[in-house]
Design a protein that fits this description.
- The protein is mainly alpha-helical.
- It has one domain.
- Helices cover 79% and strands 0% of the residues.
- Helix 4 (56-84) runs antiparallel to helix 5 (89-121).
Length: 236
């Protein structure tokens, strides 16, 4: 992997990270906050099935957006490794692995979305399972998706915390960004664990910490191209 990084300067890695992050920030909320809440209702599988049948293209567009997002996560795992390699080779590799595993888990979660789509759009399944079991299968597929994504976001929160720590150590990136990324990681951790550890506590305000990711992305897009290679880069 080190040989692969020799031909990629830091400013290019920063720009690629920023551009891919921008794409993710645009398309992921479309699926998560516009399509899924409109179509998927956890405690009403019958209505969920009808929503998907009535809006097949919309549902598949959301799934496709998440697939593109997962591919983007894989790219970012590579570019973040390059970007932070001069700071600490071992820790930058660990951070890359966390992002890569998150991408893999996201793809696994999408399998349940395809399963849900297959169940709803195949009339024979209703005859095979009967009404009660058929709708139970729909609810289970959605629950499995959400649980899988919760595991993924738990790992993503650790990724952000480690990323924030390493950014703090980087001489060529503002330390404030490291602080914001660490706070964002803690925010993801709280939101992810809330349904399991403190389900009765409202943590919506914590979501504001996610802006740390956006600010980091903007810095990469605007200032990332001006990053200069540290003197120690060639020694690593």
């Amino acid at each position: 992997m080190t040989n692969l990084t020799k031909d990629i300067p830091l400013h290019q890695a920063a720009l690629i990270t920023g551009v891919v992050s921008l794409i993710i920030i645009i398309i992921a909320p479309y699926a998560e906050f516009f399509v899924y809440p409109k179509l998927l209702i956890l405690d009403q599988p019958k209505e969920t099935a009808q929503n998907i049948l009535d809006h097949k293209t919309l549902f598949l567009s959301a799934v496709f957006c998440y697939l593109i997002t997962a591919i983007g996560d894989i790219i970012i795992a590579w570019t973040v490794y390059i970007l932070l390699l001069p700071v600490n080779k071992s820790l930058s590799l660990l951070i890359a692995w966390f992002r890569l595993i998150f991408a893999i888990i996201s793809i696994v979660a999408l399998v349940y979305m395809f399963k849900l789509y297959k169940l709803v759009t195949t009339p024979e399944y209703l005859d095979i399972f009967g009404n009660q079991q058929f709708y139970a299968q729909i609810k289970m597929a959605y629950e499995e998706y959400k649980l899988t994504m919760s595991i993924g976001f738990f790992l993503f929160s650790i990724y952000l915390i480690l990323l924030g720590y390493l950014v703090l150590k980087a001489s060529y990136i503002p330390k404030l960004l490291g602080v914001l990324l660490t706070i964002a990681g803690c925010g993801y951790l709280i939101v992810t664990l809330q349904p399991f550890l403190f389900p009765n506590i409202n943590v919506e305000l914590v979501s504001i910490t996610f802006l740390g990711e956006v600010i980091f992305m903007l810095w990469l897009l605007i200032r990332g191209r001006k990053i200069k290679e540290p003197i120690c880069t060639k020694e690593i």
